[in-house]
Amino acid sequence: MAQSTTAGRTRPDLTAGGGLTRRLDALIGRIERAEALDTVAGPVAALEKKLGEKLPWWRNLASGTFLGHPLHPLLVAVPIGSWSASLLFDLAGDRRGARRLVGVGLLAALPTMASGGSDWAYTNGAEQRVGLVHAGANGLSLLAFGLSWQARRRGHHGQGVLWSLVGATAVSVGGWLGGHLSYALGVGVDTTAFQHSTAEWTEVARSEDVTEGALRAADVGGVPLVLTRLPGGTVIALADRCSHRGAPLHEGELDDGCLVCPWHRSVFATDGAVVRGPATRPQQSYAVLERDGAVSVRIADEPRSLRTNPVGP
Ligand code: FES
């Protein structure tokens, strides 16, 4: 770790771009490129996806489709909170309370890991490798806290605390990797969140090119769109990049009046609402004006500052 010297004292360099940051970046870069992990990740993810195909209700539940956001980050708070609180109870000398909290964390960890596994199955490459190590660290924490609970139940309090400390270390590593997955690699983020919008009517296609039963690609100011004509003749325009992991929706299909994503089979209604996951966020929907043989679109009253001013202060 790089060091800085202030008034004769040496301190670790914790600034961005300092020694610690560089080492962590190098470490995570090695994980991202570790193709050997694919031999494990691929078959496990395929199994998880098969489960999601067989049980769509499970996929909707585990992904958080019913919430409009991934479920995993919400559940994570319970085991981490319980296990952290148990260490405070240890410090306060409340052994019974600490053991109970370790147990609560163990119970809460199971659905938490199940929902994370569902999110992870629909990632690829670097995301999937980091996700695998993230799951491994969290699996280790589950094991360590399980051993802690068992030791405490048998009256071996000191041993229980030691296992808790091992578990807390593992869950911290898992949390760091989980943060990287979300904030650096964008897993769980709506892939259209940073796309520009336009309040001006902009022509995107000729009327005769937008037909019923077909999906047509277009773009508005560089933002990809998918257009189709409904049976009544109305044209709809949605963001073409799937909000889940960015698939081009115009390469998907229309089924029962809905758009089906070509990559992971999320289903979107014609107003962009998610009918079936793993997507959790609706597709951005544009207002459409068809006049004089031209199809024009705009997004009215777009309140998201990242879309209206993506590079602003
Ligand atoms: S990219 Fe995953 S459902 Fe569309």
UniProtKB/TrEMBL annotation:
Signal peptide: none annotated. Keywords: 2Fe-2S, Iron, Iron-sulfur, Membrane, Metal-binding, Oxidoreductase, Transmembrane, Transmembrane helix. Residues 201-297 form the Rieske domain. InterPro entries: Cholesterol_7-desaturase, DUF2231_TM, Rieske_2Fe-2S, Rieske_2Fe-2S_sf. The keyword Endoplasmic reticulum does not apply. One of its GO terms (molecular function) is oxidoreductase activity, acting on paired donors, with incorporation or reduction of molecular oxygen. It holds the Pfam family DUF2231. This is Nitrite reductase/ring-hydroxylating ferredoxin subunit/uncharacterized membrane protein. The chain crosses the membrane at residues 101-118, 130-149, 161-185. It comes from the Bacteria. It comes from Microlunatus kandeliicorticis. PANTHER family: 3-KETOSTEROID-9-ALPHA-MONOOXYGENASE, OXYGENASE COMPONENT (PTHR21266:SF60), IRON-SULFUR DOMAIN CONTAINING PROTEIN (PTHR21266).
